[in-house]
């Protein structure tokens, strides 16, 4: 019987490999359907795109993913010295997220020509907005992030590890039933492993909303889809940095909040309220507080001996 550590390792690797391959196959298959329809139900074009996706997944798996995983698991060469960023996350973003976003942008342009043809011929327009592929890509990205964060912890029993990469600290649930007892003692129980899932989804919520805006028909069929997807992809690069790294705050300001605020204001001016005002308010508030507490608060003019400061 394999040990629990081996079972956990196999489970994590299978899930990460599925998160790498499934989004690519789904996005490429939807793109193949779109190409087939544009080419007049040409099955040759459909199977050509499908074959390309299979060849791509096979190549990146054998040439990049498997060798990288081998180096990480065996702690060979420079990989063993990496502590401030995550090679697996970087490889995933480059090999999966980037090509999926590129195909989605290409789909918007192909679909634009399809809509023009259908309108000219008087045929009903079936707008294909790729909502399922987009959701799958983002969900797979979140799953990879969760696996990387929760990897140091056990899957069963109480979590006593201090290496959980959600925060620099972790409270054990066992220290909380000792503090509170009685019939409602379960209300004070907490476990860092469950908080990983909450923190990960909250971490990606802003990016999810930005990609959702790209699915709006007015944005999807315009040139604005390019900067929206590009900025959304740039924000995914934050996953490369370890969650307890101080650099993550600066990366969030430079790669997400500041550019997201600019593009959202521009989208609201051009298309109206395609995104809730809450999100640009969040972006500007986070940006201003980062600038103030990181730079301005250290200036002599902002220093005050008042006790409440």
From TrEMBL:
The chain crosses the membrane at residues 9-33, 45-68, 89-107, 127-147, 218-241, 261-279, 284-302. The keyword Membrane applies. Keywords: Membrane, Transmembrane, Transmembrane helix. The keyword Ribonucleoprotein does not apply. It comes from the Eukaryota. Signal peptide: none annotated. This is Transmembrane protein 236. It comes from Dicentrarchus labrax. The lineage of its organism: Eukaryota, Metazoa, Chordata, Craniata, Vertebrata.
């Amino acid at each position: 019987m394999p040990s629990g550590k081996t079972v956990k390792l196999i489970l994590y690797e299978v899930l990460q490999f599925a998160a790498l391959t499934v989004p690519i196959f789904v996005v490429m298959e939807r793109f193949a359907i779109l190409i087939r329809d544009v080419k007049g139900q040409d099955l040759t074009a459909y199977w050509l795109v499908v074959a390309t996706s299979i060849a791509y997944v096979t190549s990146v798996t054998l040439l990049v993913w498997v060798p990288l995983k081998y180096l990480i698991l065996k702690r060979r060469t420079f990989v063993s010295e990496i502590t401030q960023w995550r090679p697996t996350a970087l490889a995933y973003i480059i090999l999966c997220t980037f090509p999926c976003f590129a195909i989605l942008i290409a789909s918007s342009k192909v679909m634009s020509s399809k809509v023009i043809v259908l309108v000219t011929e008087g045929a009903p327009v079936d707008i294909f907005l790729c909502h399922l592929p987009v959701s799958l890509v983002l969900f797979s990205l979140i799953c990879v992030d969760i696996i990387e964060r929760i990897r140091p912890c056990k899957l069963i029993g109480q979590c006593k590890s201090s290496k959980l990469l959600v925060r620099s600290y972790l409270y054990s649930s066992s220290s909380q039933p000792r503090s509170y007892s009685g019939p409602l003692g379960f209300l004070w129980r907490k476990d860092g492993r469950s908080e990983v899932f909450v923190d990960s989804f909250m971490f990606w919520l802003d990016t999810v909303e930005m990609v959702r805006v790209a699915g709006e028909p007015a944005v999807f069929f315009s040139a604005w889809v390019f900067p929206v997807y590009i900025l959304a992809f740039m924000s995914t690069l934050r996953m490369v940095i370890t969650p307890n790294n101080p650099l993550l705050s600066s990366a969030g300001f430079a790669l997400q909040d500041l550019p997201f605020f600019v593009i959202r204001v521009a989208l609201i001016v051009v298309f109206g309220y395609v995104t809730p005002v809450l999100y640009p308010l969040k972006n500007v508030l986070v940006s201003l507080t980062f600038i103030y507490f990181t730079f301005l608060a250290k200036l002599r003019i902002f220093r005050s001996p008042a006790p409440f400061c």
